[in-house]
Amino acid sequence: MANPLYHKNIVSITDLTKSELELIVQLASIIKASGSQPYLQDKVIASCFFEASTRTRLSFETAVQRLKGSLIGFSDSSNTSTRKGETLSDSITMISSYADAIIMRHPKEGAARLASEVSTVPVINGGDGANQHPTQTLLDLFSIAECQGTLSDLKVAFVGDLKYGRTVHSLAQALSLFNPKFYFIAPEALKMPSYLERDLKEHGIPFEYLESLEEGVQKVDILYMTRVQKERFDPTEYMHIASKYVLTAEMLQGAQANMKVLHPLPRVDEIHPDVDASEHAYYFQQAENGVYARQALLSLVMNEEIKELTDA
Amino acid sequence: MRETMAVEAIKKGTVIDHIPTAQGLNILALIQKRDANAQVTVGLNLPSKGSGRKDIIKVEGWLFSEEDAGEMALYAPLATINIIDNYKVVKKFKIGLPDSFVGIFACPNSNCISHPEPVPSRFKVVKKEQKVRLRCHYCERTFSDSLFK
Q1: Where in chain A is the domain with CATH 3.40.50.1370?
Q2: Cα separations in angstroms, A144 against A152, A166, A195
């Protein structure tokens, strides 16, 4: 089969079509079940983290190693030419002449888009400021498909910081291709940005705000929790607000049997540790799935043909 | 008082007419950014039959292309461009909104990569229900046109 992701830059989740998202999820599932072919053998992958990110970097680098690729790169920009004043454009031009693909994280929004336009090899965005983090969305989609058996027609609640949380924005955009119903549970100050609400309305995606977390738990297939950050509020206000968005095992009693709780991690207080033992908890499997989703993506971007998909 | 007496006629050049009041100086800034030596006459708050008041700009010696005019579209999408030769209007067109703006406005997002890098800013024009918004090609944020005025 023709692989539409071959040599494609992966900058923004909105660059990917529904069938491309399904392809990545399908391959991630196959890789998780049966292991992967050495799809990056003899390839050099540059892992360029202009901003530190432990989970994303380690997950990407594990994926590269499992696909038998070689890694070059850096885990923060403190010892790179960036500190000497080199532009990102020059850095990427240089790195793309060494490596076969570039994985990058950068604190500035739009950095991956710019890099993809100067690079001669594919660029995969591992997060650009508050803008996009497409591979987080891919692992979220894979986790949802895995625990629900489908991505279509699901009821999904997003809880916590919906204003600044880029994982929420990207996942909502991606799921919009699959006929969802959304519930939003958030403090007034951290509601979904109006431009996203406008997009949902324009695409005919139903959504509503719920007053309490308990109400959301009863209604949905997926409860997507996020952290309400302390620095957004004064300390007293934070105590009051954050306490309303803490999930406990007791709250899960009326949940549907198939309901799963996801969280991009790290969590702080918003999911009580007593939820971990519940059959509804799925956030650690979700974190593990980051490696499979990234293996699937890297395999598809770097290989014109994928044997497992041809056989499937 | 007749309009033609408010601003002196030009022999050859461009007259931008029907600019909404308060936008004339924004357009002047764009013209000066393109050509600091442009010979310009500006009329502000002149009487207008249609909208009560308007701004008007006359640029001597520079015959605007539609692309030149497009740069000014965000400030005055309904303005009229008159190309003048030998004191006569030889071409007349509405400015109209282009599909994109390149290198004209800085991105309002201070954390956008377009600021520190040697690249021109790039915005896609998104027009829905009479509202104009600009979406940054790099940081992907969408901004109301009022942020640029």
Answers
A1: 13-132+290-311, 135-287
A2: 10, 18, 25
CATH class for the region spanning B100-148: mainly beta
Give the ipTM.
Answer: 0.89
Question: Taking the domain A135-287, which CATH number applies?
Answer: 3.40.50.1370
Note if A133 is an active site residue: yes
Whether B111 sits inside 8 A of A129 (CB atoms) is yes
> Residues of B numbered 89-148 whose beta carbons fall under 8 angstroms of chain A's beta carbons: which are they?
109, 111-114, 116-119, 128, 136-142
> Domain B12-94, CATH 3.40.50.300 — does that match?
no
Nearest Cα residue to B57 out of B1, B94, B2, B8: B8
Chain B residues in contact with A195 by the CB 8 A cut-off are 142
Residues of B in contact with A15 (CB under 8 A): none
Give residues with Cβ within 8 angstroms of A85, minimum separation 6: none
pLDDT tens by residue, B65-108: 887 888 888 888 889 999 999 999 999 998 888 899 999 889 99
pTM of the model as a whole: 0.88
In chain B, residues with a C-beta closer than 8 Å to the C-beta of A107 are: 111
Burial A110-144 (b: 16+ CB within 10 A, else e): bbbbbbbebbebbbbbbbbbbbbbbbbbbbbbbbb
- The catalytic residue among A8, A43, A57, A133 is A133
Q: Can A56 be counted among the known catalytic residues?
A: yes
